[in-house]
């Protein structure tokens, strides 16, 4: 399922990142790599704030749909 559907407070593991190479590289630079754990902190209007590698990162709804957990 896409990260977009994870519930706040739920820790999930990244299974796959889809999209163009530039998008995948950008997400990887933010810490979103296959196998890492991500925790959704909050969801506001589809945009997410997540904990990834001990950092909080805000991502858009479109980016969250490209991250499969």
TrEMBL record:
It holds the Pfam family FeoA. The keyword Disulfide bond does not apply. Keywords: Iron, Membrane, Transmembrane, Transmembrane helix. GO terms for molecular function: transition metal ion binding. Residues 1-69 form the Ferrous iron transporter FeoA-like domain. InterPro entries: Fe-transptr_FeoA-like, FeoA-like, FeoA_core_dom, Transcriptional_repressor_C. The chain crosses the membrane at residues 30-50. The keyword Aminoacyl-tRNA synthetase does not apply. This is Ferrous iron transport protein A. It comes from Hominifimenecus microfluidus.
């Amino acid at each position: 399922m896409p990260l977009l559907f994870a519930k706040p407070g739920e820790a999930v593991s990244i299974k796959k990142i889809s999209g163009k190479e530039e998008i995948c590289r950008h997400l990887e630079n933010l810490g979103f790599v296959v196998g890492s754990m991500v925790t959704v902190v909050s969801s506001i209007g589809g945009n997410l704030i997540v904990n990834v590698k001990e950092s909080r990162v805000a991502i858009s709804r479109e980016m969250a749909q490209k991250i499969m957990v």
